[in-house]
Specification:
The chain has about 375 residues and is α/β, with parallel strands linked by helices. The protein is built from ten helices and eleven strands. Helices cover about 35% and strands about 20% of the residues.
Length: about 375
Amino acid sequence: MSIKEDQSRFRNIIKGKIKADLRKYVSQGEMIGKRENEYVKIPLPSIDIPNFRYGPKQKGGVGQGEGKPGEGVGEPGEGEGQAGSEAGQHMLEAEMSVDELAEILGEKLELPKIQPKGSKNIETQKTRYSGIAPVGPEGLRHFKTVYKQALKRYITSGTYDPKDPRIVPIRRDFRYRTFKTVTKPQTKAVIIYMMDVSGSMGDEQKEIVRLESFWINAWLRKHYKGLETRFIIHDAAAKEVDENTFFRTSESGGTLISSAYKLCMEMIQAEYNTDEWNVYPFHFSDGDNWSGEDTRLCVQLLKEFFLPNVNVFCYGQVESKYGSGQFLKDLQKEFPEDDRIITSQIENRDKILDSIKDFLGKGK
């Protein structure tokens, strides 16, 4: 068996183990902390590392090797703790691309491929030069190759003179670049994450959002190579921030969800023409809002702007002991059968995988 076959078999074993324990990897988030560009280092404690095993005649120990009868074998040392009965585990870190993780996620959750929305799936034609041919238009004559062909002919015929190195190409030396027209789908997408950072959203709730957003990004990036990501935080007011600030900011004020929806709408109108972009707003909150009046304003914005223009609007409610959870109930009441809005209740880390299935399972 070749080294490449061994490597391929080993990677298939790793993928199988990650797929089998995906809920654990998604909820613990160990791999997310070990990202390097587009690759992730994954700790795999359950794969045995190959090692040498001696036969019964090769084992060392008391009674073998140098020494004389009656000599001591050393004084007993002072250990700490109690002896264990289980074998130790070897920790192994396997490197895997985010795209491969997305593939595993899709297989595990049986996610459908995303169909880009309507006119946003634009096809572009590009000319790709693919080789050299003996015939073609004069505008594509490849002079360097022509010279090489002529030089080769001079040398093989014995007429090349180093003192007079003039090379005169003839018709049979001519070479031309060949090309073909390649049609490629040109799709662009943006994810706009919004999160309530008021006092009721604690570190655990933000960590759940962080873990879930990593896997959402991985799956959408698999379908949109030009994926952009934006971040909005809000309490009673909303503002755009970078990713690091998004997951670490804490505020103590009240909550006006409409402030985030308004800023998100302005961002889309200013920078993302919905005839050209696939737009994915995701909002995470514990369900508290300042008033019923503000919730009605949110519903109005969803009906009049978001649902007609975005691929899908996703709302994830992260359970908190301080949050009422009312906003999820209001959305479910207002949009009972509209598949353009998807809601998901995330009770704890173990529910992250189910929530990802909720959001991505319709292939929008």
